[in-house]
Amino acid sequence: MHRDLKRPLVGKTAIVTGAGRGLGRAEALELGRLGAAVVVNDYGQGGRDGSGEASSGPAEEVAEEIRAAGGRATAHVGDVADFDTARALVRLAVDTYGALDILVNNAGILRDRMVFSMTEDEWDSVIRVHLKGHFSTTRFAAAHWRERSKAAGGGPVHGRIVNTSSEAFLAGSPGQPNYAAAKGGIVGLTLSTAGALAKYGVTANVICPRARTRMTEDVFPDADLAEDRPDPLSPQHVAPLVGYLASPQATAVNGQVFVVHGGMVAIVERPRVAAKLDAVGDVFGFGELDGLLTPYFDERRGEGFAALEVLSLKRG
Fold first, then answer.
1. Identified catalytic residue from 125, 149, 165, 166
2. Closest CA to 88 of 97, 98, 76, 99
3. Other Cβ atoms within 10 Å of 184 Cβ, number
4. What gap in Å lies between CA 265 and CA 75, rounded to an integer?
5. Mind listing the pLDDT tens digit for each residue in 243-285?
6. Where are the chain's structural domains?
7. Which residues pair with 15 in a beta bridge?
8. Its family (predicted)?
9. Active-site residue (options: 132, 136, 173, 179)
């Protein structure tokens, strides 16, 4: 395989959703820098809670940045959780650039509330934009790649999906039951997709980024950094991993979950059985379960909500 490490995505076409600001913007610019033609999707609403009127401004500004740097880009305004919009987005990429090769799902909103106070609309809207939005674009991209593979006699095609989850799906994020549930669902969707599309040469992976954006301004407020010190939570630290996962070099990377921020990439291991308990007879009784489970969890009290610790992968 020819390994072009400077512009590995020349000849490829990418869609990046939610790309008008923050992480999506950084990812779109990175894919353009690596040679891909980019369809920049954003609904352009003013509020991170999904409020405000749709606007073409954010998507068009990012597309213009890519074009100004010598790349190719097209802006698209629309709600990716709408099935017809998602279908049209994939069709726009194919009609404009001849094919779709890369899908980066990033669009999302926040409507935080404790579980005992959350309204039905606050739940539904966040699940819709994050989880259904990821599914809608994936559904039509997957159909495109399946048809391309069939047209090629069943051979593999270059298809890459990079979905955006969060460590909230692992830690629970107490004030975000809707967001945590949506992000957990995105992991499940991605792993299912990875298994379903592998035979077509398509990979699907998940990133859990930590980045200072409009979405995380309450979690990661502006840092007081020295002028010569880079911000470890800049979206610029996340975009290179997305570029790599979108590339031909990442052919063997499929169904993986990554945590990424500030010069660090961690691979999240699949869940493993922590302990196995066997009944003395054929069926557990209440007293037997109490004698086994109560002391087990008493010794580990609080571990389920401990802060996440990840291993760093660094050069050297």
1. 166
2. 76
3. 17
4. 30
5. 999 999 999 999 999 999 988 999 999 888 989 999 999 999 9
6. 13-268
7. 39, 103
8. Belongs to the short-chain dehydrogenases/reductases (SDR) family.
9. 179
Closest CA to 178 of 192, 162, 188, 166: 166
Helix axes 57-68, 22-33, angle to 10 degrees: 30
Query: In angstroms, rounded to a whole number, what is the distance separating the alpha carbons of residues 213 and 236?
Result: 11
Backbone angles phi, psi at 305, to 5 degrees: -115, 20
- Sign of the CA dihedral running 21, 24, 28, 33: positive
User: How many other β-carbons are positioned within 10 Å of the β-carbon of residue 292?
Assistant: 15
Q: Catalytic pick from 97, 165, 173, 183?
A: 183
Q: Which fold has domain 13-268?
A: Rossmann fold (3.40.50)
Q: Which of 157, 164, 167 is nearest to 203 (CA)?
A: 157
* pLDDT one-digit tens code per residue, 161-177: 999 999 888 888 888 99
Is 179 a catalytic site residue?
yes
Query: What tokens appear for 182 in the block?
Result: 């949506």
Residue 183 a catalytic site member: yes
